[in-house]
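2024-03-11 09:14:02 DEBUG pipeline.ingest accepted 1 chain
2024-03-11 09:14:02 DEBUG pipeline.ingest length=71
2024-03-11 09:14:03 DEBUG pipeline.predict start
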Amino acid sequence: MAEISISKSDWERLKLKVKRKYRELSEDDLIYTPGEEEKLIQHLMNRLKRNREYVVFTLEKGLANIDNNRL
């Protein structure tokens, strides 16, 4: 089970941050359905070639400062 929970509205803002930081990610890479956090984490791990802790940390950091444009 995923360590984080992302709402649909938060994802729209977080997606922009992730896309800005990782320009190699496409719109298809950033498709997310609420409740499928685990699928998103796994996909980002594969695409970014990073471990689980890094991906979860990055997403949590973006959510913690959701009103901020920085990731």
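2024-03-11 09:14:41 DEBUG pipeline.report Residues 8-64 form one domain.
2024-03-11 09:14:41 DEBUG pipeline.predict end
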